[in-house]
Design goal:
The complex is a heterodimer of chains A (258) and B (244). Chain A is mainly alpha-helical and 258 residues long. Chain A is built from 10 helices and no strands. Chain B has 244 residues and is an alpha/beta fold. Chain B is 34% helix and 27% strand. Chain B contains 8 helices and 9 strands. The two termini of chain B are 36 Å apart. The chains are: A mainly alpha (258), B alpha/beta (244).
């Protein structure tokens, strides 16, 4: 049962995280835009020539290639990290008030989703400037992939936010894994750059598959990996249901372990 | 549970394990000392405690430090889970284990009213309606847009209290809320008690024995040896005074 107050509390949490994240910095909210932009600029300058030689991409195509990779990966990184930390970060509240605990988890994920939405708009603007045509189907496909990732990370956070209370090392482990994933997801280099015998890493990595699918939808208006995307939708829905049950049971014990 | 009962605590026990040495909270500790046992000191916070708070009753809990008062409030509030026994709550319960929960020093007073008020179970619409009253009651109208970090602790408490008294729930759990303010603030609190007495069910913990005697319908005395007594305020408070 979701009450009016639960929804208001959710909004308050999202608002507060948003305000706090960029408080005290002069550019404030602009950093949401500037950070991925500079990351993009650096990688673009360094790798655009290589990509042309190896991956047969024009520099325009590489720009969209890189941007979509960065944005999907940033979404993944933020969702996983913020979701995992959400319970620990609100320990003060959890020790004092009996509100629904899953609100802090969904709030953290929502923050990642908002950033993702803003980043998608940036892609759209850059794409239009570069003269790329977006097909409706392509855009819808990207939104579907975004939704699947959101649900998947929400499901994962039900577990990791609880584990985090018992094992603080999770911060460092996750950081390492994300770093590995960044390279294993072909975010900034063409897949062709990976030697044939290691290419399975990209072929089996769901994030890499999502990124490739978004790229193909954006650049060539072509839907690829549809079967994989649809079956992962089923998987993440199951993950959310199972995770939610696990969370509801375990979160009751969490307060005494902070 | 009978309809005339607000809180039912039945055979509740709670034990805490405090690691004395060898706590393994990180993997390093686990890897480096895989065979070293973690040593715990176990202590009972509550043992086989049962009582009921009736609807509209002002029920106080007294006892020395370490008797389990705060643990009891946290269990009743659903923050801790009891090891044994069960707690049933009949109605909306809002715990006040601290005033101004969730206050964010960097946000303005007004933003904090919405944040804290929502945490305490009010909706945005209700807060829109109450916001002027809250600032008037706290006498902080001209500071509404100031960050809380620039507030004196007295101002912050006044604001927190003004929000707290707007809470609608029919069961309140109050932990030493009076301990934080000056005499004027305490008077406001007591006026509030006068006003809500009989209309809400209250579970109240305090060291201020005179207030316990004055407002309570019944008193629970938690002792260090985990035994307890429940009874008329005058009788229990006197016995507690004599025991100390």
């Amino acid at each position: 049962m979701i009450s009016r107050n639960d929804i208001d509390l959710y909004k308050q949490f999202v608002k507060t995280i948003f305000k706090m994240r960029y408080k005290g910095s002069i550019l404030g909210f602009l950093w949401v835009l500037l950070k991925p932009f500079f990351m993009f600029l650096i990688l673009y300058v360094v790798f655009s020539s290589v990509s042309g030689q190896v991956g047969n991409l024009t520099s325009r195509q590489y720009a969209v290639y890189l941007l979509s990779g960065l944005i999907i990966f940033t979404f993944f990184q933020e969702g996983i990290t913020w979701g995992m930390n959400s319970i620990m970060e609100r320990a003060d509240l959890i020790l004092k008030i009996n509100f629904k605990r899953d609100i802090v988890v969904i709030s953290a994920l929502t923050m990642a989703l908002i950033n993702f939405g803003i980043n998608l708009l940036i892609i759209a603007v850059i794409g239009i400037v570069l003269g790329i045509h977006f097909s409706v189907l392509g855009v819808a496909y990207i939104l579907l992939i975004g939704l699947i990732m959101f649900l998947g990370m929400y499901g994962i956070s039900f577990f990791t936010s609880i584990w985090m209370v018992y094992l603080r090392d999770l911060t460092h482990i996750t950081e390492l894994v994300l770093q590995l994933m960044f390279y294993a997801s072909a975010v900034f280099f063409p897949v062709e750059l990976i030697p044939e015998k290691y290419r399975f890493i990209v072929e089996l990595n769901p994030i890499a598959i999502f990124i490739q699918s978004v790229r193909s939808a954006l650049t060539y208006q072509k839907i690829i990996n549809l079967e994989f995307v649809l079956s992962s939708l089923v998987v993440v829905i199951i993950l959310v249901i199972v995770g939610n049950r696990y969370f509801k049971k375990k979160v009751l014990k969490v307060a005494e372990h902070f | 549970m009978e309809n005339s009962i607000a809180i039912q605590v039945k055979n509740v026990s709670k034990q805490f394990k405090v690691p004395t040495k060898g706590q393994k909270n990180t993997l390093q500790e686990r890897f480096l000392n895989p065979f070293k046992k973690t040593h715990y000191r176990e202590f009972d916070a509550l043992k086989n405690l049962s009582f009921e708070v009736k609807k509209g009753e002002f029920f106080s809990v007294i006892g020395p430090n370490g008797a389990g008062k705060s643990t009891l409030l946290k269990i009743v509030s659903g923050i801790y889970l009891p090891d044994e026994g069960e707690v049933k709550v009949n109605g909306d319960l809002v715990p006040f284990l601290e005033l101004g929960v969730g206050f964010n020093p960097d946000l303005s007073a007004k933003e904090n009213v919405y944040l804290n008020g929502t945490i305490l179970g009010l909706t945005k619409n209700e807060l829109d309606e109450y916001i002027d009253e809250i600032f008037d009651f706290a006498e902080l109208r001209e500071f509404a847009d100031m960050s809380i970090k620039n507030f004196s602790s007295g101002m912050a408490v006044r604001l927190a209290f003004s929000i707290a008294i707007k809470v609608k729930s029919d069961i309140l759990v109050l932990d030493e809320v009076l301990a934080v303010g000056d005499a004027e603030f305490q008077k406001k609190c007591y006026d509030y008690f006068d006003r809500i007495k009989g209309t809400k069910s209250i579970l109240y913990v305090s060291h201020a024995l005179s207030s316990v005697e004055k407002y309570s319908d019944r008193v629970l005395w938690l002792k260090e040896d985990k035994s307890y007594e429940i009874g008329e305020p005058e009788k229990i408070v006197n016995a507690y005074r004599n025991a100390e």
